[in-house]
Write a structure and sequence with these properties.
This protein has about 300 residues and is of the alpha+beta class. It contains 5 helices and 18 strands. The protein binds the ligand CC(C)C(=O)/C=C/C(C(=O)O)=C(/O)C(=O)O and fe (ii) ion. InterPro entries: Glyas_Bleomycin-R_OHBP_Dase, Glyas_Fos-R_dOase_dom, VOC_core.
């Protein structure tokens, strides 16, 4: 089993690089990191060198990166994935530099989501300089799409150290790789895609101020403000350019003792399973509601 130590980054192709960077910095609040790579922009939320990279080109998610313990763990992971019959590519020096990691490998999950594992993600000791006072504290989690969340869970929990924290019917599987309720979520969707990228904010005041700011800026609010009964976080999902969905969230439970936690299964058809501040609805008006997704960039 491969032990993922953390989420690292999301790389996404964009047709309008300037527009994507402008939104991620001036609207979301992320810090733009200096880059000497033509057509590539890096953004920062926390001590990671960067956690979001936009690459000028075809619109759509390119890859989602995780870290493992180090070079030996990366080599073992490469061997393990190849044993499972997955085609594993070892990144080159330029690719590692662009990702802000020492070395990395890449493969597709069973649904076609491009996943990268890195031996070490460079940290920055410089204080984060958010572009606006969004209160962002960290890159909190990433959410992928897969046509079968149970199959996705089987992949992530057998090949890797992911444990399910909660289910929302067969529509969503929320998985942890450390005490945080989830660092990886998989939502049901027709094709491989990035469902959303989460940034934790420091306080409820930050989240609500961000909500007013986004509304004033005419940003499409996808869902929220609301509160997930799963993680307990207060959330706000909103859409950026080229269909990239962002989430601000505050709070969220920690599961420190795996043996004391039993995953729950929430009813996908009940709005309160997604937002516990919503009341029940009659069966006739129930409808599935998951945040929209960003299809993978067809390579
Ligand atoms: C909208 C889905 C089904 C949902 O319930 C999401 C839960 C959470 C959470 O509990 O925090 C997320 O943030 C997430 O899935 O990304
Ligand atoms: Fe989320």
């Amino acid at each position: 089993m491969i032990t993922l130590t953390d989420i690292a980054y999301v790389r996404s192709g964009v047709e309008d690089l300037q527009g994507a960077v402008r939104f991620a910095s001036e609207i979301v609040g992320l810090e733009v990191v200096d880059s000497d790579e033509p057509g590539v922009a890096h953004l920062r939320a926390d001590a990671r060198g960067h956690c979001l990279t936009f690459v000028q080109g075809r619109s759509g998610v390119i890859s989602s990166g995780f870290t493992v313990a180090g070079p030996e763990a990366l080599a073992e992971a490469e061997t393990e994935l190849e044993k499972q019959g997955l085609l594993v590519e070892r990144g080159d020096r330029a690719g590692a530099r662009s990702r802000g990691v020492s070395e990395y490998i890449a493969f597709d999950d069973p649904f076609g989501n491009r996943v990268e594992l890195a031996a070490a993600q460079f940290r920055s000791a410089d204080p984060v300089r958010l572009t606006r006072g969004a209160g962002i504290t960290e890159f909190g989690h990433l959410c992928l799409d897969a046509p079968d969340v149970h199959e996705a869970y089987r992949f992530w929990s057998t090949t890797f150290n992911a444990r399910v924290s909660d289910w929302v019917g067969d529509g969503a599987c929320l998985m942890r790789i450390d005490p945080v309720h989830h660092k990886l979520a998989v939502f049901r969707g027709e094709e491989a895609a990035l469902c959303h990228i989460n940034f934790q904010v420091d306080s409820l005041d930050d989240l609500m101020r961000n909500w007013h700011f986004l509304v004033d800026q005419g940003v499409e609010i996808v869902m929220g403000p609301g509160r997930h009964p799963t993680s307990g976080s207060v959330f706000l999902y909103f859409r950026g350019p080229e269909n990239l969905t962002y989430e601000y969230a505050v709070g969220g439970r920690l599961i420190e003792d795996d043996s004391a936690w039993t995953p729950r299964v929430f009813d996908l058809e009940q709005p309160s399973s997604i937002d516990m501040w919503r009341g029940p609805v009659a069966p006739t008006t129930r409808q599935r509601q998951l945040p929209q997704t960003v299809p993978a960039a067809t390579s």
